[in-house]
């Protein structure tokens, strides 16, 4: 089952670009967070693809992916808490409507 | 190239295609809940990719942590912030066509760089199972392991403090 | 002789393969062998579910001093068939305001994890559909996604009651997932590998894990959290008929409701199958053939779940949450500590030490959670 | 102790379950079409008219008290007349609409001539709702023996009352 590595890299870069498109073009804060999750996942797939052909310590890629998943969970938690707080105060989570520096 | 290699590679490319479609849908669909569900499909697709790349433990962790935990967070956020579903409001910026310019640029540079460099495709190592991962976590990476648990604790308390209603 | 009965299903599959092998090319044979296993699982799941419903109705009937269903068939044996036909022919109503995509997606995605999970359970000696090196982890990963699908079903039906049921389901399953995972870790600690076959092999003969002190606590913990994870009786708030009609599957009728119903019973079967695999020694047993041992233990556990259903009223949400976070979680952590000690110490000392740690901790948790009656308040001025 | 209630509950249900296989009387269900529970003396379903000798000589004198008293007004009586048009003391038509009747038994209490009583027949299903449930006089008529068979005490009391009145 030999997959040439540049096919995987092209796939992950397309996935990354899709996430980037979502992050840039969406108005809804939660939508942006969802797109960031896609970008994070694209990077994780890269790690795993490379970790297979590492001679010295093959498991380092996978460990890094585990840390990445855990940190994505932490960012998602804090990010969504902030979004909830904005929603509670501003009654809207559309990023272009949140322009007051203080509320 | 036995039949199974052929089946496996076609399944791999099919999974890749499926993930791209699900991700594209997730980013473009108007109803936020549908985009959360499509995100779940992309995550499960990526877990399938990990199975193909012999990273079984990471695939199980991905499903357990991402689809089990983070998706629940996102779905709760979607539920709490949307006024019971009124997708009438436009979900994306008016001049979203402009976004394609930087995207195209970045994409062109990235993909051309990928295709030009000669990746030395060495024979993939033996599969890394949970035992070697555990050993590495406990010996070589024990410091980052502790720091990450600290970060999680901080994120936990931070999220509760921010989201707590007075 | 006993070994032939024990391996009867493997031999049957081999016979089928031998019959077909002269006619088909070699690679087709491998596909056929995989296909046979998949077909048996997909047939075995719904059939077990149908006869579990009948067993449950008769069992609970007898508890309430009445017969269970005994009209269709001799002892009501055709009752599941008639239920099935009724479910097929019932009209499938989709509410007009419902979100068609999520409403349609609900039942499909709820049934997939409950079927996928069967692939990891060892039904008998080398009778495991697919021996993954991350067996148990695969089970939990797939089982934990069902939270999300239950919520899609609840959110898709756009109805206050199902949304309430969905939120209750998510809150309950998330808070019971952590004790469930932690109650498994001692067994993995002792065995040292995730694969279910290794766990069962580690419990050779009668050295089932349940007979060790940490094993008993782990068994009780895992069984209780399993019952909660499957939304069965004392913890069935997500579909609390009395207060929120039918919880997340209120707006489903006909075959879609049958899928939810089937998923619930198959989850109940697979959770009790996993409890037997990890703590009751899977198919290990003295004389009888291995798969008979496995099904006997699983059905004992399922009848205990039904016994719970016949006895306990539904728990309030705060009791439910309190039980998980204040009761099961600390016990799971201490059980992990006791198991670690048990592994590292020699025979006489480890049982005694882990036994006292666990009894002391159970009593402490019990005392800590007891409701303290408020002190009698004396109103100084009222009495003058 | 906190956990005892749980164990007691479990003990009760498992006791019920095991003993239900040994002592038949614990099981309260009656297999309806095959076995039947014996109806009590005062079971009442739909009213019937009682006659002494022959079905056309009913005890009823068409006084229409029951028709007036009936809450859902499901009794309709037309007094019989002889050729000269003089009203007679018996009903020409006496219809009770069983689909409207609510089995209250008020007609039985108010009837001064002990002619209308509550029967205990409840298996009265029919294919057609309007016609078949409109019971006419001859379908309502039931003999006094039938009445005394289904309700022995009240029949005895009624007999003594009637004999006392005749003397």
From TrEMBL, chain A:
Transmembrane segments: 7-24, 30-51, 63-87
Keyword match Transmembrane helix: yes
InterPro entries in the record: NADH_UbQ_OxRdtase_chain4L/K, NUOK/Mnh_C1-like
Domain of life, per lineage: Bacteria
EC number per UniProt: 7.1.1.-
UniProt GO cellular component terms: NADH dehydrogenase complex; plasma membrane
Main location: membrane
Reactions catalysed, as given in the entry: a quinone + NADH + 5 H(+)(in) = a quinol + NAD(+) + 4 H(+)(out)
Stored Pfam families: Oxidored_q2
Keyword entries, A-Z: Cell membrane, Membrane, NAD, Quinone, Translocase, Transmembrane, Transmembrane helix, Transport, Ubiquinone
Subcellular location: Cell membrane; Membrane
Topological category with respect to the lipid bilayer: Multi-pass membrane protein
Any one of the GO BP annotations: ATP synthesis coupled electron transport
GO MF annotation terms: NADH dehydrogenase (quinone) (non-electrogenic) activity; quinone binding
Quaternary structure and partners: NDH-1 is composed of 14 different subunits. Subunits NuoA, H, J, K, L, M, N constitute the membrane sector of the complex.
Task performed by this protein: NDH-1 shuttles electrons from NADH, via FMN and iron-sulfur (Fe-S) centers, to quinones in the respiratory chain. The immediate electron acceptor for the enzyme in this species is believed to be ubiquinone. Couples the redox reaction to proton translocation (for every two electrons transferred, four hydrogen ions are translocated across the cytoplasmic membrane), and thus conserves the redox energy in a proton gradient.
NCBIfam families named in the record: PRK05715.1-2 (NF004320), PRK05715.1-3 (NF004321)
Record family assignment: Belongs to the complex I subunit 4L family.
The protein's name: NADH-quinone oxidoreductase subunit K
Automatic annotation (TrEMBL), chain C:
Keyword set, alphabetical order: Cell membrane, Membrane, NAD, Quinone, Translocase, Transmembrane, Transmembrane helix, Ubiquinone
Protein name: NADH-quinone oxidoreductase subunit H
Subunit structure and binding partners: NDH-1 is composed of 14 different subunits. Subunits NuoA, H, J, K, L, M, N constitute the membrane sector of the complex.
Species name: Candidatus Danuiimicrobium aquiferis
Reaction(s) catalysed by this chain's protein: a quinone + NADH + 5 H(+)(in) = a quinol + NAD(+) + 4 H(+)(out)
Domain of life: Bacteria
PROSITE patterns noted in UniProt: COMPLEX1_ND1_1 (PS00667), COMPLEX1_ND1_2 (PS00668)
Enzyme Commission no: 7.1.1.-
GO molecular function, one term: quinone binding
Family to which the UniProt record says this protein belongs: Belongs to the complex I subunit 1 family.
Signal peptide, first to last residue: none
Recorded name of the encoding gene: nuoH
Automatic annotation (TrEMBL), chain D:
Protein name according to UniProt: 4Fe-4S ferredoxin-type domain-containing protein
GO cellular component: membrane
Alphabetic keyword roster: 4Fe-4S, Iron, Iron-sulfur, Metal-binding, Repeat
Pfam families: Fer4_7
Residues of the 4Fe-4S ferredoxin-type domain: 51-80, 92-121
InterPro entries with a match to the protein in the record: 4Fe4S_Fe-S-bd, 4Fe4S_Fe_S_CS, NADH_quinone_OxRdtase_chainI
Gene3D superfamilies assigned: 3.30.70.3270
Keyword field contains Cell membrane: no
Species of origin: Candidatus Danuiimicrobium aquiferis
GO molecular function: 4 iron, 4 sulfur cluster binding; metal ion binding; oxidoreductase activity, acting on NAD(P)H
Source taxonomy: Bacteria, Pseudomonadati, Candidatus Omnitrophota, Candidatus Danuiimicrobium
